[in-house]
Design a protein that fits this description.
The protein is of the alpha/beta class. It has one domain: Phosphoglycerate mutase-like (Rossmann fold), CATH 3.40.50. 33% of the residues lie in helices and 18% in strands. It has seven helices and six strands; from the N terminus they run βααβαβαααβαββ. Strands 3-2-4-1-5-6 form a six-stranded mixed β-sheet. Helix 2 packs parallel to helix 3 and helix 6 crosses helix 7. The N and C termini lie far apart (44 Å). The relative contact order is 0.24.
Length: 197
């Protein structure tokens, strides 16, 4: 039995480009242009899922995918930090930032810890391993990083060493017993005029 999971990272927003913790803001126009250029590059899927956030749903739509919302794909909940810049939070709560960067169980912002996100990603992958066919999931870097760590059996502390580019593709395969990481960081074709809008 072949099981395939293709995770697509959502695009950038104006807030994330400025180094802010994401909130539920829309994509920047360039991300929509790049996603539209990727249309038709994905193989047929048996299931298409999207994280609940607006930016993930916008990417699915720009890719021409009819996606069902899957709550397990949600981005990390940054609680009180959502929408604030990293520098502002570091200036106001330096101990909180240190804890967040060094302890996967810490949630100084009142939202989710990285361990919480990893638990959701593991639950998703453990459930999907028995589903024959190809699933495409539009989600967030935090979910993709923790899915990679789940497959590799690596500690959550290694999360900061994985860079997930906006609109990149990460592909997993399974024989129904175990997952393997097939490809990571694959980017789609860029349009001739990448400035977009």
């Amino acid at each position: 039995m072949l099981v395939r999971l293709t995770m697509i990272c959502n695009g950038a927003t104006a807030a994330t480009r400025q180094g802010a913790f994401p909130a539920d803001e829309p994509l920047e126009p360039r991300s929509l242009t790049l996603a539209t250029a990727m249309r038709g590059t994905l193989r047929r899927a048996d299931r298409v899922w999207s994280a609940p956030a607006l930016r993930a749903r916008q990417i699915a739509e720009a890719l021409g995918l009819e996606a069902s919302v899957e709550p397990l794909l949600a981005d990390q909940d940054y609680g009180r930090w959502a929408g604030k810049s990293f520098d502002d939070v570091r200036g106001q709560q330096p101990e909180g930032i240190v804890a967040w960067l060094t302890d996967p169980d810490a949630a100084p912002h009142g939202g989710e810890s990285l361990a919480d996100v990893a638990s959701r990603a593991s639950k998703l992958m453990n459930g999907l391993i028995a589903e024959r066919g190809h699933t495409v999931a539009v989600t967030h870097a935090s979910v993709i990083r923790t899915a990679i760590l789940h497959v590799l059996g690596a500690p959550l502390a290694a999360s900061s060493k994985i860079d997930i580019e906006p609109l990149s593709i990460t592909d997993f395969r399974s024989d129904g017993r175990r997952w393997v990481l097939r490809a990571c960081g694959v980017t789609g074709p860029k349009p001739a005029n990448p400035r977009g809008a």
